[in-house]
Amino acid sequence: MPDIESEIQAPTLVSRKKRLRRSRIELIQTIALPIISLIILVVLWQYAIIIFEVPEYIMPPPSDFLARLIEDRALLFDQMQRTAYEVILGFVLATVISVPLGFAIVSVKFIERALYPLIVFLQLTPKIAFAPLFIVWFGIGMLPKVLITFLLCFFPTLVASMTGFRALDERILYLTRSMGASSWHTLKYVRIPSALPYIFTGLKVSIVFAVTGAIVAEYVGANKGLGYLLLRGTSYLDTSLIFAVLVVLALMGLVFSYIVQFTEQIVIPWRGKEE
């Protein structure tokens, strides 16, 4: 008699190998295609500068600022550490405050009536306008940059948290109460897991704003950081330095974004499976 179990498993193994091969091809394409596109863009940029004889102080060729990345790597790395520290502090502070506050606003009507109009008013106010005021109050140290970064990260995370905690169906809460679950268990096993996808959506937006906030705050007043290097490059018409700093900023923002996405995959792995 033929082995029925092996006959059933054989197509399954074949389809699994096909899916694995397809996923590998997709991964290679996801990594390779952007790199190839970037290389083509850099080559076209380089030859366009040569053909049209664009002055270096207006638009440097990629070979100049890429070489500047290597030559000034110690300076760029040192200033990047300062900016990255401001980004991390502001982002973490905003996350720690906005998520519990979002839950409190959704859960307690008195807090919502007392704080939500004020939060909406502050959200409509341009946060960058606070930068000169913070410089006057706290000087040109790290604190004003952290506060500006905090303000830019706070509102997207708060709104996302409130949306996540409100998205839960009230019937599920009635069901947990009828089963004897305490408020803590309902919060831990029902409310927080259901709100996490929304919270991480807000965090992905906030981490981009965090880098922007730190750089803009360094524009207003600073003696360290990548924003300070941009100002210095502008003062001396050193466009190769400016583009080198922009590359470092792009890489730093990319790393922070991937860290948030990786954290999301660890904390809520079921979301990736659903997608």
Could you characterize what this model shows?
With 275 residues, the protein is an all-alpha fold. The protein folds into 2 domains: 1-53; 62-274, MetI-like fold (Orthogonal Bundle), CATH 1.10.3720. The protein is built from 11 helices and no strands. It has helices at residues 4-52, 62-71, 73-107, 109-124, 130-138, 142-166, 170-178, 183-220, 226-235, 239-267, 269-274. Helix 5 (130-138) crosses helix 6 and helix 9 (226-235) packs antiparallel against helix 10 (239-267). The model is unreliable at 4-10 (pLDDT under 50).
Poorly predicted tracts of residues: 4-10
What portion of the residues fall into strands of 2 or more residues?
Answer: under 5%
**Architecture per CATH nomenclature, i.e. the level-2 architecture of the largest domain:** Orthogonal Bundle
What is the element string, with H for helices and E for strands?
HHHHHHHHHHH
From the spread of the alpha carbons, the general shape counts as flat
- Characterize the biggest β-sheet: none
Write the CATH homologous superfamily of the largest domain: MetI-like
User: Which structural category do the helix and sheet elements fall into?
Assistant: mainly alpha
Arithmetic mean of pLDDT: 82
**Distinct helical segment count:** 11
CATH C-level category of the largest domain:
Mainly Alpha
